[in-house]
Design brief:
Helix content is about 80%, strand content about 0%. The chain is built from seven helices and no strands. It is an all-alpha fold.
Length: about 200
C-alpha cells in the first residue's frame, strides 16, 4: 500500500473526491488490494474511532429525558461492527447472485472506506452541534441520503453493475433485513440498549 494512504491529508482529499465521484473513489480503494491483516486493522480502527466520537457526543450533549433509550457508545460500537461486517458479506453474496464478481475483501475495504467518510461527517456534525445546533439535524438528514448514494455506487463499482436503481432497491431491502436480524439476535441474547 502506498505510504500516501497513511497521510491524513491525502485521505481527507480522497474522501472529498469520493463524495463527488463515488465510483472513481471506490475504484481507487479497490485498486489498493489491501491484505487481510490491513483490512482487520482498518476495520478495528474505524470502529474504535466511531465509539470515541460517540462518547464525545454523549459528554457534550444534555442527558436524555428519563425513560428514553440510553444507548452506550460501546454497545453502539459493537452493534455497528456487527452491522458493517454482515453488510460486507451481504454485498458480496447478493452481488454474486445477480452476476457480480466482487470479492468479500473488496466489499470490506469499501465498507471501511464508507465508515471513514462518515467519521469525517460525524466530526463536522459535532462541530455544528457546538456552534450552530440546528444545522446538526440537517447534516444528519443529508448524511442518510449520502450514505445510500455512496453505498449504491460502491456496490456498482465492486460488481461492475450498471443499474443503480436495481442496486438501490436491493440495498434498502437488505439493510432493513440485516437491521431486523441484528435487533432480534441482540434481544435474544439479552443485550439491552443501556448496557455496556
Amino acid at each position: 500500500m502506498s505510504t500516501e494512504f497513511m497521510n491524513l491529508g491525502h485521505l481527507l482529499r480522497l474522501a472529498r473526491e469520493t463524495v463527488t465521484n463515488p465510483r472513481a473513489g471506490a475504484a481507487t480503494i479497490l485498486g489498493l488490494h489491501l491484505s487481510v491483516q490491513a483490512l482487520r486493522i482498518a476495520f478495528g480502527l474505524v470502529v474504535v474511532l466511531s465509539m470515541l466520537l460517540g462518547e464525545l457526543v454523549v459528554l457534550i450533549t444534555p442527558p436524555p429525558p428519563e425513560g428514553a433509550l440510553n444507548v452506550s457508545p460501546v454497545t453502539m460500537g459493537l452493534v455497528q461492527a456487527a452491522f458493517l461486517f454482515v453488510i460486507a458479506h451481504a454485498i458480496t453474496l447478493i452481488g454474486r447472485w445477480f452476476g457480480g464478481t466482487g470479492s468479500f475483501e473488496g466489499a470490506l475495504a469499501l465498507i471501511i472506506w464508507l465508515q471513514f467518510i462518515f467519521l469525517c461527517v460525524q466530526v463536522v456534525q459535532l462541530l455544528a452541534m457546538l456552534v450552530i445546533p440546528p444545522v446538526a439535524g440537517l447534516i444528519t438528514i443529508l448524511a442518510m441520503g449520502l450514505f445510500f448514494w455512496l453505498l449504491v455506487n460502491f456496490i456498482a463499482a465492486l460488481h461492475s453493475f450498471t443499474s443503480l436503481g436495481m442496486i438501490f432497491v436491493a440495498t434498502i431491502l437488505t439493510a432493513f433485513g440485516i437491521i431486523f436480524a441484528l435487533s432480534l439476535i441482540l434481544t435474544l441474547l439479552g443485550i439491552g440498549f443501556g448496557t455496556v
